[in-house]
Every structure is written in C-alpha cells, then in structure tokens.
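ok so I'm stuck.
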Amino acid sequence: MWIPSEHEKYGVVLASFRGTVQHGLPLEIGDTVQILEKCEGWYRGFILKNPNVKGIFPSSYIHLRNAIVKNKGQFETVIPIEDSVITEMTSTLREWGTMWKQLYVKNEGDLFHRLWHVMNEILDLRRQVLVGHLTHDRMKDVKQHITARLDWGNEQLGLDLVPRREFSMVDPDEIGVTELYRLMEHRHRKKDTSAPASTHHLFVHVKSLMSANLGEELEVFFHIYDGRENRPLSERFFVRLNKSGLPKWPEKADRQCTLFVDLGSSDLRKDVYIVVHIIRIGRMGAGEKKNTSNVQYRRPFGCAVVSIADLLTADSKDDHLLKVYACNTEIEWYQIHENIIKKANSRYNLSGSNTGLAVALQLLHGDIDQLRREYMVLFTRGVCITRKLGFSDIIMPGEMRNDLYMTLEKGEFEKGGKSVARNVEITLYVLDADGQILKGYVAAGSGEPGGDEYHSLVLYHNNSPRWAEQIKLPIPVDMFRGSHVRFEFRHCSTKDKGEKKLFGYCFVPLMQEDGRTLPDGTHELIIYKCEENTSLADCSRYLKLPFSKANLPSNNQTLKGAKESFWITSFLCSTKLTQNGDMLDLLKWRAHPERINDSLSKLKEIDGSEIVKFLQDTLDTLFGILDESSQRYSLKVFDSLVHIINLLQDSKFQHFKPVMDTYIESHFAGALSYRDLMKVLKWYMDRIVEAEHQDHIQQVLKASEYIFKYIIQSRRLFSLATGGQNEEEFRACIHELFMSICFFLSQENKGISPVAQTQAVFLRTFPAIYSELLKFFTVREVAGFVRETLASLPTVVQADSPLEAVKLQCISKTVESQLYINPESRCILLPVVLRVLQTCLQEQRDLVMCARIFTSMLSLIKKEENGIVEPAVLEEVELIVESLLGVLLRTILEISNRPQPAGPAMRLQFQDVTGEFVACLLALLRHMSDKHYQKLLQAFSSKDDLRDFLLHIFTVFRILIRPEMFPKDWTVMRLVTNNVIITTVLYLSDALRKNFLSDKFDYKVWDSYFYLSVIFINQPCLQLESFSPSKRKKILEKYGDMRVMMGCEIFSMWQNLGEHKLNFIPAMIGPFLEVTLVPQPDLRNVMIPIFHDMMDWEQRRSGNFKQVEAKLIDKLDSLMSEGKGDETYRELFNSIIPLFGPYPSLLKKIERETWRESGISLIATVTRLMERLLDYRDCMKLGEVDGKKIGCTVSLLNFYKTELNKEEMYIRYIHKLYDLHLKAQNYTEASYTLLLYDELLEWSDRPLREFLNYPMQSEWHRKEYLHLTIIQNFDRGKCWENGIILCRELADQYESYYDYRNLSKMRMMEASLYDKIMDQQRLEPEFFRVGFYGKKFPFFLRNKEFVCRGHDYERLEAFQQRMLNEFPHAIAMQHVNQPDQTIYQADAQYLQIYAVTPIPESQDVLQRDGVPDNIKSFYKFNHIWRFRYDRPFHKGTKDKENEFKSLWVERTTLTLVQSLPGISRWFEVEKRELVEVSPLENAIEVIENKNLQLRTLITQCQSRQMQNINPLTMCLNGVIDAAVNGGLARYQEAFFVKDYIMNHPEDGDKIGRLRELMFEQAHILEYGLTVHEKYVPQDMRPLHKKLVDQFHLMKSSLGIQKPQEFPAYVRASPVPFINGSPRTYRNSVPSIISPDTGRGVARRSYPAVNRYSSSSLSSQASNEVSNITGQSESSDEVFNMQPSPSTSSLSSNHSASPNVTSSAPSSTRGSPQMAEKHKHSRENACLSPRERPVSAIFPNPLDPAQRVPAHQIGDTTLPRSDPNLSAPDKVRPTPSSWSLDSVKERATSFSDSVGKPACPPIPPRPPYQVSTAKNARSQSPGPMSRSPQKTTMPPFTPSPTECQSTSLVSNSPVLSGSYSSGISSLSRCSVSEASGTELPTGDHPPHPLPPPSALPNSISSSSDEPIRRENKTPPPYSVYERNNPRRPVPLPHSLSIPPQTDPPALPPKPHQLRTGSMKLDGNADPRVPRPRPLPRKVSQL
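replied:
not stuck anymore, here's the structure
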C-alpha cells in the first residue's frame, strides 16, 4: 500500500533506472528526485528538473539527503539542506550543460573548450567541498575559487549576475533593496575593474649556465637595479654553480629559487633591471696552466641584464636565456651592468657565442600572505626571500629587521716596491667587543647561509681596484654595541706557490659611544700597514686608533696625507636601532632634564620612520613628562602628541594606528592627563575665532579623535583609581568644551575663510568622537551633543561653500555610526538628517553624498517579522515618506533628463548616483504599508498636487523600466523593481479612479498610467518565454507572471472609464496592440476584448471605425517587423468575431448586421495583413535566401497598395524591395521597383518633405533623381530599351526648361544605350514554372504557382537545385500533372518545377525584315505575360508502325498577374488555358519550324555571318537523310492516305497545307544545296555530292522527278531571299493550334526503334560536338531519321551564348518513335533538361490570334510580278514541267495567282576573296499560269538595316544544334510555302536576279542578257495592298516582302510602346487585370 513519505523527501540517483516496469520513471545517474510516496522498497515521485512526469522507482537506487519541506501537502516544495555554494554549483552546471552543447553546434570552439575545462574544475572543487575534509581557511579559498569560476562562466554565456554575500547567494526578499543594489554594484565593479595590486614580487629560478669554456665553479649574484638613480634596489641573491654550470645543490630548491619581495608599483619601470654578476672560483687567469698550489681566487666572469618591464606582459612563468657579457678590461668591471644598460658596446663583448644563463622569471602581484595561499607549492617546496634595501612602502608593526649592508667600493694602494701593480684581495670579519669573530653573520646574499668571513674579488694587477660588492651583516641588536668590522688586505701572487701576503688592514666600529649606529653613507677608511697576522690578534690595540679620515683631528696631517685609502658604503635597515641623536635625547629625557624643551621642539624634525620604530617609548616619554611637569610642558607635550597622531594619518604609517590603539587600551597609564588635555584643547577651541593663523589649530582638530580617546581613557583610569570622583566636574568640562565647539561652528563666514576651513576640519573628525563619548555618556546624551553641534551650523550658506559638502560627509558618517543604529538615538537625529537631505535634494547639489546617506538610512529600517512591524519603524518610514518621497521623485527625474557627462569616471559616478537613488525609492516604496499610502494621498491639499505627484511617479516608473537603467545581467534587480512598481501601481490606481473620473477626468494622468502599464508588460526581463525552464520556474514561484497582473489592472481601469474611453481612441490602439502581441495566452484573452470596446465606441461616435482600422494596421506593421507576434496570435485575433457574442449590449445602438459586417471585414483585413507580416518577418531572418525575402516583400507591397491603400507604407516597402534587389544584383527588377514610386510623382514644383533617404526637395527634382537612378539600373541590368524611354522623357523635360547642358548629357546617354544594344551581347534567360503545394509554405506561396525568370546561365537542374536549397524541407514532385487536394492540404512542402516557353507580345518587331537579333532578343524575352508548356501523349490506339497517327500535344498556356521581368523575378499565375494539338497540326508545326531554320542558315551563309559552313552542312545532311529514309514518308503514310482523308474531312485544308510545306522544304533544300556548293570547302566536296544524290532520292520519295513537276503554287513562288536567302509566303491554316515557337533538340534516329524524345537540352550542344569531331553523324543514323512529334524547333531562343556548351550523350537523342517503356517518360519525368518537354523552353513568336481562317487560304497570298520594273531588268522563268498527281485536283485553285519568280541579289564576298568576275546566266523555273485572277497581299515593311536572322545561330561558327535529325527536329516557327528557284551553275557565286516581269497567262522564258552583279541593296519587291481583309495580322518577318518604292518604315520608337505606367506592356493581354492605381496623395512623400 502506498503511503505518503514522512522523512524520505529528497534523494540523488545512484544508478540509472530504465523504468521498464509499469508506471516506471526512467532515471539517469545524478538526477535529483522528490519523493511523494513509498511502498515496500519502491518510491513514487518525480525528477526535479521535470516535475510534470511522475512515476515509481526502486528505493535502492536512491541516496537520501536531508531536506526542508515547504507548503506540506499537494504543492509542497523540497529544499535540500546543503551548503548554498553546492546548491548553486549544481543548478549552474546543469544550466551550463545545455548551453555548452549549443556552443558546439554554433561552432564556437574556443569558448566550448574553455567552458569544458572550467566545468571540470568546478566538479573537482565540488567533490572537495562535499567530502568535507578541508580546513576552514582552505574551504574559504575553495569557495572563493568556485564562485569566481561560476561568475566567469555566467558572464561568458550571458547569464545573470548572482548577488552573493560570503560566497552564498542571497535571497532578494531577505535583504533590503539598497543592500541588494550595493551587492550587485560591488560584484559588477569587481567584474569590470580589478583593483591593481600595489605590491609586487619577482620570482627567480636559476637553472643553468651554458658555456663552452667552463671547468670552474661559479657564483651567480642577482639584484634589482635602478637605472635612473644608478643604485641597487634590493639585496643580492646568491647561487653557487658547479663546474658543469648546474646548481651545486639541486636537491635544495631554496638555494636556486628566490622571491624579490615588496616591489612597489613605481619599481615596475622600463629603467629598472635585473642585474646578474657571475664570478668564477679558480686560477688567476682563465687560461693558465694548473700550478702546484691549490689557491682559489674569486675572479670576474660575466654580467647579464634584463628589464623588468619585459616581464609585465607575461602572465606565466617564462624561461629566459640571458646573454652573458664580459668587460674588455677589468677596470670597468664595477660598472659593466651600467655599460650594458647604456649599450656602450666598446666596453664589453659577449663572453662566448653560445654562453647563456637559463633562468625562469615571473612577476607575482599581491601581498605576501595572498601569494602563500595562491602559490602554495612555491612556498612548501622552498623559496628564499630577497628583501628590498630599506623598508617597503608600507611598514607593518611587529616587523623585525636589523640588517647592515656594506658595499666594498674601491681602494687606493701603493706598489709596495714591486714593478707591477698588486692583485689585492679583501677579507672581511665581524668581531665583537672581546675581539672574537662573530660566526655566521657575513652573508654574500640570500640563498646561501651566512659565513664567518668574506673574500672579495681579485682584480688583476690593479692598485686602484673598484669592487662594488655588497655584503649583508644581519647582526642581532644586542651584539651591535662594541662590535666592529675588520678589513684585511692581501696581495695574491701568481708566483711563489700562489700565497696571499697580508700588507694592511682597516676597521670600522658599528656603534658610537652615545648609542648611535654607524651613519649611512660612504666612509673613507684609514689603511694601517701590517704584515703579520699575529699583530691583529689583539684588537684592543687598534680600536683606539682613528678608523676614518673624517674623524681625524685637524692636526693629524700624517694620516690625512697617507696615499692608501679604502672606501665603503654602509646602510642600516633596523626597526630597533637609530642613527638619530635627537631621538635618543628625547628617550633619555630623565638623564638630561634641561634638554626636554629642546627635545620636544626637535621631535617634529625627526623622520617619521624613526618615531614609529619607538612609538610606545615615545608616547611613554611624552606622558611621563606631562605627569611630572604638566604646568611647564603641557602645551609642548600636547603639540608633540598632535604631531605623532597626525603622523599616523600618513599612508606609509597608517598601519601603526592599531599600535597606538593597543597602547591606549593596554599600556597608557596617564590617569591625570585628561585634565591637561581637555584644558589645552578648550584653550585652542576658544582661540579659533580670533586666531590669525589657523594651520596649527587645524592640525589639533585633525587629531581630535585620538585626543578624545586619551581623554576618555585617562578619565576611566582615574575613575577606577578613585572610585568615580569628580565625575560631575568632568561632565561639566565636556559640556563646556561642546559649548566652545558650538560657538566656533556657529560663526558665519563669507567665502572660503580660514575659520570656515577650520570648521570643515572639525566636522570631518567629529563623527569619530561618538564612539568615545558613548563609553562615558548615555546614547541619548551623545545624540543630544550631536544634534546641538550639527544644529549650531549656520543655516544660510553659499551653495559653493566647501562647508556644505563637509557637513554632508559628517552626516553620512553619523548615519553610518554606531550611534545612529540605536533606535533611541535615531529618533533624535532623524529630523536633523532629513532636514539637511531635503535641502540638498531640493537644490540638487552633492547628490552622491545624499544618495549615500539615504541608502544608509533605509538599510537600517527593519523588515517586518511574522507580519508585525514595530511602531517606531512605521513612524520612521512615515517621516521619511513625508519629507523625502516627493523630492526624491523630482531628483530622479532631474538626473535622468540630464545629458550624461563625458569621461568614463564621471559617467560611472553619474550612473551610480542614479542607481542609488532608484534603490532608495524602491526600498522606501517597499517599506510603505496601506496606512502610509493612505496618509500620503490624504496629505495632498489639492487635486493639482495629487495630479503632479501621480504624473511624477508614473514617469519615474517608466524611467526605471528602461533597459539602460541597470546592466543587462541584473535580472534579479529588475524583477525586484517590477515587483515594487506593480504593488505601488495597484495602490495608486484606486486614487486614480476616485479622483480623476467622471467630471474630474484628467486625460494626462490616465494616459500616463496606461502608457506605463504597456511598457511594463513589454519589457524584456518579463518575457518569461525567452528564459530557460529553470529560470522561468524560479520567477513564477517568487513573483508570478507580473504581465498578467498588470494586464488585468489595465482591463479593470479601462472598464471604469465609461464614455471617457473615446479620449483614448485611436491613441491607445497601438500600445494595447503591442500588449496583445506578447505570447501569453491569459494576457491576450484579457486584452483582446478592449478592441471590441474601442470599435463599439468609435462606431457610436462616428458611425464607423476607420480610425481604429488605420491605427491597427500602421501599428501592426511596425510591431511585427520588430519581431513580435506569432501564428497563435493571428488565430486569437481572428477570434474577435465569435467574441461578439458575450457582448450583445455593445451592438444595441446599431443594426447587428452592419456592425458585424464591418467588424468581420476589419478582422479579415488585419488577419490577412498579419499573415503577410509574419511571413515577411520570418523571411527577413538572418540566413534566409534573397529570393524568399523578395517574394515576401512583393506580396506585402501589393497588399498595401491594392487592399489597404496605405501609400506611405507602400512606398516604404518599395524601397525595402529595391534594396533587396540591389543586394541580389537584380538590377532590372530594382529598376521596375523604383519605377513604382517614380510613377506616383509628377513633373511639378510642389515641395516634398524629407522622407526615407530623400532630402526635402521639389517633386520635379525627386522624379529627376529617380529617373537617373532607374536608367543607371536598367543599364546595369542590360535592359537598355527601357532606359531609352526614360532618357527621352528626361530629355523632353530638360528641353522644355532649356537646360541644354543636361539635355546634351541625356542625348549622349541615350546614344550610348543604343550602342550597347547593338554592340553588347545579352544572355537569353530561361523561364520556369514553380508550384508550391502544402500547408508548410508561407502564406504568400502556399498552394500557388509562379513563373520565374532564371538567372544568367541557369538551366533547369541548377534552378531546381536552387529552389530545393531555398526550401530544404521541400519534396520535388516527379510529374507535371496538377496535384490533387491531398497535396494541397498536406502538412509538408511540395515543389513542382518545369521549364516553360515565353510567348512574346511584340510580334511586329519580331516579324520585321532586317531587324538585328540584338534588338529582337529584347522583345522575345521582355514584357512577357503568357508562357506555354507542351506535353505529348497518345490518344486512341497507338500504331506501332507509325506513331504519328495518334500523337497529340497537350498545350498549357499560363497567364501571369504581371509581365516578366517586373518588380520580382517571379509572378503568380493568374489564368491557365489548356488546348490539345492534333497529330496533323503538330506535323505542320514541325515542318514549318524546320523550313524556317533552313532559311535562316542559308541567309547567314550568304551574308557571311557564319565563319564556317558546318552548321548548314549538318542541317542539310540531317533533313535530306531523314527525308530519304522515311521522315516525310511517315507523314505521307499518316495523313495523305485515303482512310485519313475520309475519316477527317475537316482536315482537308490542313492536309493541303502539310503538302505545301513538304514541297516548300524540297525547294528550300534545292536552293540550299546550290548555296552550299559555292561555299563548301574542298575536303567536304564528297559529302556535298552525297547530299545532292540523296536529295534526288528524296524528291523521288515525294514523287518529284523533274524540276518541272513542282506544283504550280510552288513554281509560281520564287525564293524571295533577302540578302540571298530563300523566302516564301503562305496562308495559315485554321487551327486551334497556338503557333507559338517551341524548341527542339537534334536527335539521332535508329531504324528499328522509334522513340519519343524527352530531352530538352540546349540544341547548341550536339552541334558543338559535331564541330569538334569534324564530322557529321553516321549514315545509318542520318538515313533513318523520323519526324518527331514530341520535338520542336532546333533553333533555341533560350539557349545560352555560343560560348556556353552543354552536350548530351547520343543515347538521349532518339528518333520520335520511342520504345514502349519510355513513351510516358514525359509525363513522369522530374523535368530535368534532358527530360523536359521540348516546347517547354523554345518560343514561338506567333500568337494564336494571328492564325488565318481557312476561308482565306487560296491564291491570294502568292506574290505578283512588279509592273514597275523596266524590261531589261525582268527575267523570263523557264516553264515548269513538274507536276504531282496528288495535287492536280487542287492545282486550278492556284492558277493565275503566280507572279514571276526572281532570285534576290546575293552580296559579294569580301574583296580579298573575290576572283575574276564572269558573266553568268541564271534561270528560274516559271510557273504555269492557270487563272487570270490577281490578288494583293497586305504589306509589311521590314527595316532595311537587317543584318542577321532571328535564328539562334548568330555570328558564331558553332551552330547551337545538331542538324542530323531531319524533320524530327524541325523548327516550330511558322514558315510559308516554298517557291522553287534554280541557281546558276559554275564556280562563282550566284549573281542576283531581277524580279520577275508581269507576264500573265504566259510562260516565262529565261533571259539571255547577263545580269550585272552589284554590291548594293537589292531592288524592292512588289508591294501588297495594306488593307487586305483576309489578312488581319501581318505575316511573320520571315515571310514579309519589302515594298517596291516606299522607303521602309522604322520600327516604332521605344517610348511609343510605353502605355499606362511604364508603357512597357502596352501589348499585353487586355483581359489580364491590372492593379488598381493608388490615389494621388504622394505630394508630401
């Protein structure tokens, strides 16, 4: 049975538990669990990090921990009983763990690894704390280390700053707000700036000396040297090295490591160095041979120097290899280090190329105790301490030193009768008074133990040696008296067995007779001659002699004139001995009473360090003198005491204050001194006002703290001794003293007078006296003294008086003192403090000090305990609120509105002041209870005062909510602030309701209230959704969701407003809308109904709520673009409609339907806007692709224009879209986008305001600027035709203003654009249809289809991959069928992509003759509204022998909402049309396209546009081969058989048309072969002959045996080639086919296999392969080509430039008859270029509307002869005998309709290719005239400047396509019937033939006259009538005939095409709806 657990409440999981049992709870090792119930070895509970999931788990898996249970019962919480640091570590590590993994994902590797190491370090420290074996000090250090690491990690991860006290987190509710602020501030400061350490230490570790020429032991000396003052700063560190250069005692670390301690910050300069001197121990000369003697000398070896500044940058211990230098001459040895520092290179050199001293150096910072904690290993292992010379910057009491430093400077010696100078060695001994050598007190340096003697260096042959060797003599104080140092001089001979001969000595005593030590400085010692060691045995002999030349009497000239001398420098560093005689005289005052006055006077001149050495002795002396001679010396002793007290104020000696305190407490014995001290002090106080010089009095007042200490202690001693006698007298004296103080303080002074300065000095020290007075007086008495003293200060003081600042400092110290903490005294002092504070705050001065005082006051107010507040506390709070609340609010307002001062220090202080005042306000409000609020609000005498107060406090609260109020990681402080604010607002809202509603309504107060509430809810620190779950849980447990509380308060207050709500409509719509965007469901549900209310009240007021709507929409845009709102919000907002139900009362005054309709309309609009805004926000996120951003912006822009009519928003988004296009380099789209704004403007002089990045300017100038910008972008986008239109428009404006300068520039710009059209190549884009299906797409794409203009060089695979990259979760659909509803509604993303063919609108330009391709290419791919896609399929039974019979084409035409290109690269499909093309119509299109391609190639060949003839060769080969092998025969079999004609009588005309096209093809081929023969290279002649033979076979297959057997309609039509290319005319057959251009691919055809081709590769590819290989496809492929119904034109309008190739393998190029398994591949393909429908990419320039009805077919379209030609120019064609049985029946319909054929002039080859011209005759077949009917043709005037064909094949030698596929790859372009023409034979190019003469009803014969060949424009052909009713549209350009006489008309100017806005889509389908124009209210934009 499960029973609630009593004691087992909290535990830690010991082992993982899978939870496989029923109701089992899976556990991971380390999880913490809360236990609810238990049952027989099982627990039931939950994991603390996921309390929602409960389950059971074995009790054996749990380690129970002690815990505190709060709120026992259902909602109990468990708090483990453990160290708070452990708790924090655990929770922090868990939070870090999640974020640490994210660092890896975000690729922040550096922080990832650093955090990993810190986490491991914290875990190790946590284990140490948990084990509990640490000492108290070690535990403190570990906790400090842990908290430092936790703070570091929190800062790095952007987590909150944790307030701590003694390493433990503090609960904000348990401490005051001011204290919390100080903790946060302290931690923030600590984080920002670590205080620089004032003490530094240098660690040195000697490792080895590397040198090639060692072999002797070495002594290495380190010291720190001041290069500026040229003196050592420290004693020496001494290391011995063995003969290998390694430390002699490697096992003793303290002998090779040292710490140079107590370096000040001033010592870390560039000119402070570490100097190393190296001495070798051995022979005199380094290279000498070993002699028999074993005498060792100390000889110079080398020196190394390194600057301390170089070590400052290194944090770790670095190894250094110091270069060792030797001096050139030993004379310079004493200053070698100076020479190295000064870089005097001539005086030293490297001792060896590879000599170096290896040492480790590291600078450490902090005091020595701190180092012992941080570097424990260093000190436990052993390190010797090397001290500074002299005391450190701060002298600590108890420090014991007695070190005498002697430096052997130099000597002067005589030769001693020798020819060379001596080798002098000094031996130093320390001897005591008895002449015994003191052993162990001679130290060469730290690191080695002291010795008995010291041997100096030996400098070779030098009678004036300079050693500069420093020795330390640490002689005990008690041995100093009587001791002396003796120096013995010996000559070291290099001969005579190397003995050392004594030749002299000198000595120096350490202490003088009067007890003074040897003075510091240099001493010249007298050298006494001596050759026997025995003579020195008795030191008493020479101690009587003078030791120094300075001490010689003036009459002793003998010794003074001695030549031999020895100089030393001494320096004493002692805490016990003195060199000062005056100090000794004072201490021995009893011996010489007559010197007391003199000694007391000289005390002020003694160095402070000497006084503090003997502080206790000195004080005893002073009070001894005072006791014995108080009348005589009281004033002098008092002054001396003042001097000593003030000396301890110096920072160097401030640590001696405790020494004095200890002296007062323990050693002071002057029981009677208080009388004298009080008397002298009062005497000084009384003299202050009259004294001229205040300096000495000020010194007395500075020492008043310690004087009072002595007075009180003396009185206590007296009371103890006498039993409290004379107490009243003492009290009276103190009262008198304070009366004197009050009197001098009450003196008013103007300006900065001496008395005012004295008053300031006293006030600074006055608070220090309180604690002393409290020892003798009661709290109330002392408080009375203080109150009277402070009250005596003058009330009216100048604001700039320094006394005011000091007064505040005094009050601050008073408030912080022990006196004020006591409640009894506080009630006495509080009014005084409040009065001063109030005055200062009102005058806004000394704010820093005011804040400090206020903080201290509030921190003393106790919190309520058990819900009970003490009356005294309530009274105190009331007093503070009454005095300071109002002025505090004004102060915060004033500070916040000030500009922040410059300079980081001032800014920091400014922020501190603001923060402290804010903390004070929050603390005060937190202490206020209901009664306080009631009294506060009742205290206002008028409504205006209350109104001002409310406005002030609301404004201050708004300031507190600002993000910059506190640092960003102060979340704890922000939450406390918000808690106080909401509590206060709840109190104040009652006052607002009671006092400012109904007739007393005040809009400003209510508006301020609502505004505060809104920004309160929206502040970032309350958005709990953005926090981690653990942080969110903590906040909710402590404070709840304060946003919901404030939202409920807003709703409540809004309901109280009544009719006053109208004052806030529409002003509050935006703010309230911002609140509803917070993703908190409860808050939203509270706030949304307010909008109903607003709509209702607005409806009542004005009958509509347009204002509400306008404000809603404007605010939504700005808020959602800031990242607010979500999908849920949209749905919630939409739910306003059903929410009308609960509020029927809102609808009573209007008809329900009207209100409801307009409401629904508004909500629908807002919802749709939100959809787009949400999409826009999501797309604008970092990392999204540009395409998605552009599409979304277009959607939003159009919504603002068409649905909302928001002009300003519309223009803003135009510019956002423009910027996106520029970023994506879509220059054409950018131009169209900016054009939208341009078209809203007019050429007027109206002024426009400053807007976006536009300055204030006239409308004309802004439009001009826009025009120029758009032209520039059109130019960059190679859309020059559009730029020309704008150039002309601007030019017209300049011309109208006579601005010829700009007009000239504009005309030149226009000309340059024309040049670019003709000279620069433009890439032809591909177009792709994209369907976005599924609910996962954004709203602007969801379940819509678009056509997209591809990027340059982008083909289908690349485009498809790009789309899949943009939508990585999308699934590519593998078919082209329309998807069903399951796909539409699927919760996924589906993409359907395939290529489509553009249908150009500008057919007139494309059909003109002579218009260059450069121009036509623009009209083919610009201003396109409609696109086409063909899908082949079989209808009915498929004939396996001939599949053309059943092959249909499904043609889909897509119409867009806007033409491409436009403001986007893609537009939505507005309309879909689907038609089916019959097999016969498909065959017609295939042959038409091939005929057009042949014509184009022939034209290019004749005009020399092709550099080689390969493309024409391949095309002819492909067509002839395919025709011979059954290509055209397949069509004959399919459509010319009787069965088909009988079954399809309606297709008679189409069959005839197909027949015409087949014959036309034969005629074109014949002409093409003639041209081919003239240009074919010699090596390809065999191929040409083969083509001619096969052509005859082809004619045979068509039934054409002789030239005369062409039908009449064919023979009658010459080949009217412009520039020599075949050209014919035809009538279109009636059809539902859209004769739009498609694109096909060359395919190989295999005899046995018939395929549908699904390849849509660029037709350029296979041709390039052919050209590279130099051969055409094999004959077996060529001869078996079949017509392919699935293919279209080989001539691709989509292909890339000839330079871009993409080839397909032969397997992809098949015959039209596809194998069975492949026949549906088109339907199922993924639409890659190899598989896409060919018509999906290749365009047809004709519109279906241009098809001519069937009844117009006839003889009316054939050309007539030109009657205006003269007889000699006419040619009689040869009668034709060609005929076909199959057309005999219809032949009569073509009789009499035939003109005379003519061959147009063919331009000559270039001059260098022309051979000798010969006359040649040419003949052309003349058709038989069968009917006298004459007809006319509608004229079409081509441009005479045509230079190239419309085919893809331009000037490139490489033709983009393979021509081996015959009819299967015929172009789908419309062509006319062919007319046969025979070209002249011979080796020369064919000569031009004149047009045929008019010979009706007769047979033309050939002319015998030779035709003169001319290189000029061909003569015009016959002109048709312009108004032929049966030809409503002009023929395609390839069929047009130039007029006879009229000059050709130019194409229309580009600007004439511009209608409507840009006038670029003037030919667009009128059925396509256009966006409605915006109303013209742009004038201000």
